[in-house]
Design brief:
- With about 325 residues, the chain is mostly helical.
- It has helices spanning about 5-15, 15-30, 40-65, 65-95, 100-110, 115-125, 135-140, 145-155, 165-175, 180-205, 210-225, 230-260, 265-275, 280-290, 295-325.
- It has a single domain, classed as Up-down Bundle (Na+/H+ antiporter like fold).
């Protein structure tokens, strides 16, 4: 590895957020009685989604439409196309069922807000500036992949009359108005409308405590991810390889599209991170409703126990190195 990449990986691994994630893994593996109440986990999730959406909206109001439309379009294209090319790989190379292939493809086309936050922290640690309105990309990439995944699962299953059944309608509603999407988009709009004045009024709540809340959330995520490690025996070698290879490929494409869209090195890194991430909040909820025959063991383990730890430990520095290489 190049010295710069090694330094970036070291900086990322020693960040408080990643170290708290590791602490959560250790707590679970050592069978500690440490446990978060469900209400606290939900509260932390609501806070993080609202804060990043609001801050992104404020930045969006200051940047203007001219600066945002091209990278925003690139983000939507990524969210739509990633499940379309992931599905045949999972279906015909991995020999997974139609429902499982569609559900996993939807997870990898959708995004992880926590991975995005970890990436912004990493960029701050290495003193790499990035567009503060990048949260808008997170908001627009959440739903398209879920919608595409539902369509792939329904069409691939060749079930007449099922495409717009009650389960699908509920899943589409979840994709458009579920907690994560509603909070991100709603807070984004509020931030854009209130602008800098709104940020001045709420900075003490949405900015100052943010890093501490993120550390607690990743402590919980470490425990959740480690509880999925046993499932690695069941998902098989193919999904283990897919859970690492797919983020690398998607991250490279995201970085390339970021540069095409005129983003800075840091902004292209963030778009690469979003493309490489996999959803474990919005996508599972939608898949449970629309594709109940898909196995949660497969899509949750691949997204949460393989891709998520890979991304927040070594993946983010790799996407940053790719962005630097592309920019050189």
């Amino acid at each position: 590895m190049q010295p710069d990449l090694l330094h970036a990986i070291q900086a990322n691994l020693l960040s408080p957020a990643v170290l708290f994630f590791v602490l959560g893994v250790i707590a679970s593996l050592s069978k500690s009685d440490l446990k978060f109440p469900e209400a606290l986990y939900v509260t932390l999730t609501i806070y993080l989604l609202t804060a990043i959406g609001f801050k992104g909206g404020v930045a969006l109001s200051q940047a203007g439409f001219e600066a945002v439309w091209r990278p925003g379009l690139a983000a939507i294209v990524l969210g739509t196309l990633i499940p379309l090319w992931s599905y045949p790989v999972l279906r015909f190379v991995g020999k997974l069922s139609v429902a499982d292939s569609a559900a996993i493809a939807a997870h990898y086309g959708s995004v992880s807000a926590v991975t995005f936050i970890a990436a912004t922290n990493f960029l701050k640690q290495v003193n790499e500036p990035f567009e503060s309105y990048a949260t808008a990309f997170l908001a627009v990439m959440e739903s398209p992949a879920i919608l595409v995944g539902i369509m792939l699962g329904k069409r691939g299953g060749k079930r007449e009359g099922s495409l717009w059944g009650g389960g699908t309608r509920r899943a589409l509603h979840e994709a458009a108005f579920g907690r994560s999407v509603l909070l991100l988009v709603g807070a984004l709009i509020i931030g854009a409308l209130s602008g800098k004045r709104g940020m001045d009024m709420t900075e003490g709540f949405f900015v100052t405590p943010f890093q501490g809340v993120l550390a607690l959330f990743l402590l919980e995520m470490g425990m959740v991810a480690s509880r999925r490690l046993e499932d690695l025996k069941r998902v098989g070698l193919f999904l283990l390889c897919f859970g690492i290879a797919a983020p690398l490929v998607h991250g490279f494409i995201g970085v390339a599209l970021g540069h095409w869209a005129g983003l800075s090195l840091g902004g292209a890194t963030l778009l690469g991170v979003l493309a490489a991430s996999a959803s474990y909040i919005a996508a599972p909820a939608a898949m449970r409703l629309s594709l109940p025959e898909a196995s949660p063991t497969l899509y949750l383990t691949s997204a949460l126990a393989i891709t998520f730890p890979f991304n927040i430990t070594v993946g983010i520095p790799i996407y940053y190195a790719l962005a630097r290489w592309w920019n050189s």
